[in-house]
Protein 1
Amino acid sequence: MNIPAWVWIATIAGLLLLLAIDLVIVDRKPHEVTVGEAARWVVFYVSCAVAFGIGVWMFSSGTYAGEFFAGYITEYSLSVDNLFIFLVIMSAFSVRPMDQHKVLLVGILLALILRGVFIAVGAAVIAQFSWVFYVFGGFLVYTAYKLSRSGLGGEDEEYQENRLTRLTRRFLPVTEGYHGSRVFTKVNGKRFATPLFIVMVAIGSADVIFAVDSIPAIFGLTKEPFLVFTANAFALMGLRQLYFLLGGLLRRLHYLSVGLSVILGFIGAKMVLEALHDNSLPFLNSGQSIPVWTINIAVSLSVIIGVLALTTLASVIKARRTEPARDPEPANNQN
């Protein structure tokens, strides 16, 4: 897939324009985002991703479009894990509901920039060393095992600041309390960052930690850096609206961790099979290709959608069964 420089520039400009429109419309007047408003934005961003995928299909091929959709769905699904830590961070810093959208917007923009660096490095490594798929595949299988055992976001999870957040506090003076919706302010003529800025750094850096498994996962579905980047961008842009839409419902997705672990394990196995098929390690089959079955993108997309649909349905059924039944209204006794 040969992507001219102007297509990269136009795509990034279009993504930034979407973020700018979101920022102007939603944050023009800081307010608490309602469920209805969040739902409309989620539909908008998903529609943009679908339109982009159709564009890939029209101007490139159905195979690349399938790779984009598989990568986008996987990244969006894995990003739900981020929402748990976002909830913990917002709670730990006591961020006002009306400021949460701005925090997520800037934090996710920072995450997108950092993910872009990850993607560039990953693409360069894969281009030079095909055997890295063995490493990525094994790592994803291990991650799938850990996720199946530990699940998503423990009930008693507490936020601990990571190294980047601590370094920010160390080198940047931060006020003790919030100053409205300001990110920076002046105190006695000296410029300070407010805790709102620290929250943005915490959100952005926390997302990059989760990208350690999601970036290898999408490279298992497509080796095209353009598709990897755009799938990540669309998933991240719609993530903050999903945060407001799901809210407290996250804890009701009981089997989501099982579904995501199956998907990660599946992609890990797919990467190992591809690594065997393209084998260049001299101690394996004398450095020759090993005739194994490889999984095409149509099968991958079907498995990903099927697993997510089944686990979501199972979660909904379990949530309905475990919800406490409402007490029947007492009958009016008329004598």
Protein 2
Amino acid sequence: MAGAVNRTTPDIVLKAIGLVKQGKVATLGKVYQQDAPAFGSRGWRMTIPGLPTGGPFGSHQLVYNDEYLATEIGQIGTQFDGPGHIGVVTPEGMYFYNGRILEKDPQIGPYGLGPLGVEHVAEKGFVCRGVLLDAVALRGGQLPIPTGAAGDPGIITGDDIEAMVKAQGIAPIGEGDCVFLYTGHGDIWHPSDWDKFDAVEKGERVAQFNSGEPGFGISGCEYLAERKIILTGADTWAVEAVPGENADKPFECHMQLQTRRGIWNIENLDLSQLVADGAHEFLFVWAPLKMKGATGSPGNPVALY
């Protein structure tokens, strides 16, 4: 059930490690906090119960604090989509990756997704050649929220991917790669300045961030799938364009890559340091949390270059 990450071989890992030339490290996760943008009704609520939560103990009067978290932990902030996240309704039932029919699998229920749980991907983890596609450089500025029309500048096609690879002077995208798209849309919610804004401006930015997003169109996603990559990611909340080319088929890339091919997705990344350093190729290292039966995972991936 690990999907496309099974393509990772020792040779792919060793080649990816060879991309580390400068000894630089960039963490790609955004800060998890209550007032950050979230999709739909999702939310992040953290409290510290007690202050202190426990103690004091012993003659040295030790105390400790814990946190209590209420959230859709696999689908908030910087988030990884696992095998149980995206499905499609068919005449046989709700179809998920690897032919699993939700209603017909006795291992699947409200307390876990059984064979579709994210822990099956977490057993493998991701160690790969990371490829940063700088669409802001390609378009000459932050990409707009698309209207869904053909030729829309907010939609990244297969031809656009080839153009970015050529302009950046990197090797073609190939099997086992992890591919990340910088659109500039993620800068609406950027961890370096988010807390500088008051509640009103934060609210306006949240509404703007969630109203739609630039990203891969279906031809871009098919291009990546044909090259047998193992992971997509972006500085946006869905990675693909919203709306896409076909308004009647929302999140078509999610279905084509994840449900059909097991090519997973990580959203809401902070790619700003990679962009600033011109790091278009790097060693990408990350694994989802081993949460039994979960739909996805939070995380803070690392790029080394």
Protein 3
Amino acid sequence: MSDVLISGAPPRPATTGLSSTLVLALGTFAVGTDAFVVAGFLPSMAGDLHVSPATAGQSVTVFAAAYALLSPVLATLLARLPRRTLLTAALTTLGLANLGSALAPSMAVLLASRVVAAVGAAAYTPNAGAVSASLVRPELRARALAVVIGGLTAATALGVPLGNAAGHWFGWRTALGVVAGLCLLVALVLRTVMPQLPGNARVPLRTRLAVLRRPAVLAVLPLTVLGMGASYTAYAYSVPVLGAVGVPERSVLWMLFLYGLGAVVGNLGAGWATDRFGSPAVLTAGYATMAAALGALAWLAALNGRVVPPVGLLVLLWGASSWCQTPAQQHRLIEAAPQEAPLVVSLNSSAIYVGIGLGTLLGGATLGSGAGAVYGLGAGLAVLALGFLRWTARSTG
């Protein structure tokens, strides 16, 4: 494969290196903090808006569904915009939407602001991933993708726990206001630091979506939905489901930090391991680990016991297995359709958020049956993802 920019821009030297992707990771950190911070203060937000935690959790579902639908559409409508302009505008939109969420007087207004936030996120993340993959040599592509996705995982390690702390000390509205400020600050940094890169030729959406007829692409996207659905069945409801395994609310912050730490290690390790061992091996290990960790948490919830040291280890493994998927899946898609890399990365982002929305929806529906049922459902979906991976790996060769 040539070293021409996958985003459609002119060639750049192959020596650009992984360091050039770090500024893009700042943006995905802001996006990830926005997308996942709600898990840290869901009960207090639900109480303030006079809804149940399961209903408040649907703010995650609405964001995810809007992102999934908008991502390929925005990839078409915004194709000709210079990349720096597009990425800066996307983060600015995200910041303003978070201000709207922070000031929302009702659940309806909050949901509307989450849709606007999804517009900014859907415009940013796929383009950041595609540009990062184009800035390095082909043999470093999975690691470049891991650096950018590392912004999302760093958000789970730092942004979400800090959001939990800010929500606890100052209130959830202040926490969302801080997220808004973060998005606007990173937009300014991108505007200052990122080089100008031209946009792409505009291709009709129908032509773009023709890539879905490729068997190799069709084998990847449903797996992303299943895997992320398994990961996020319990995540949005972290406070109540961790409480069921003996974690007091004041300690949820540290458990979220452990989850995020696992996410960072799993993501970066998966980028290296994918380049070395291939995607199927990484994904097999990830889904097996996820099923084991969530299954063990379901067992502990059924025991109604006190906190024991393995709880922290299980949460760490849960985070690592959740985010080891993305570099391997994106790498599989770019290999399957190298000339449509921005599109297939955006489709994978859509599939990620379909999975997050589906998992959050199923988790909310199951929450009334107890945390054991929520964890067990996540473990079952992880087993299903593992079976789907092995089946498609054989059928596609």
